[in-house]
Design brief:
This protein has about 130 residues and is mainly alpha-helical. The protein has helices at about 25-40, 45-55, 60-75, 80-85, 90-95, 105-115, 120-125, and strands at about 10, 20, 25.
Length: about 130
């Protein structure tokens, strides 16, 4: 059983504290369905659903996605990629985890590496 049948479209402004973007959301019912699918109790599920409902949940930026894509595509560790782009590994980790936005210049470099992985050899030589 999937949880999304429990979300019903209301096509009206959000006024009920149990709505999410115009949809009714029964957190307990959804949590039980998800836990039934998972076959186990999920510790912070209800809190996560409440955060989602309140639009307080975690968001993923394009920069984070690009950074992870480049690391996956190239097979580089955080440490190695940080050395290639001459940045502290803690900074790269902060970008990847969304603590700080990835700067524009780094986004450009990551886009180039994503589209042309052979450029890593030039970065390694620098």
């Amino acid at each position: 059983m999937f949880w999304w049948p429990f979300i019903k479209n209301q096509n009206r402004p959000i006024s009920n504290p149990h709505t999410y973007r115009g949809h009714n959301m029964n957190i307990e019912k959804i949590a039980k369905a998800i836990e039934a699918d998972a076959g186990q109790s999920l510790e912070d599920l209800r809190q996560s659903l409440a955060e989602m409902q309140a639009s307080e949940g975690r968001t993923t930026t394009k920069g984070q996605i690009l950074l992870r894509t480049v690391r996956t595509k190239t097979g580089l560790s955080q440490q190695t990629l940080a050395q290639y782009i001459q940045t502290p590994v803690a900074t790269l980790r902060d970008w990847e985890q969304g603590r700080f936005p990835v700067p524009g210049g780094v986004l450009c470099l990551l886009t180039l590496i994503n589209n042309h992985p052979e450029l890593l050899a030039e970065l390694q030589a620098a």
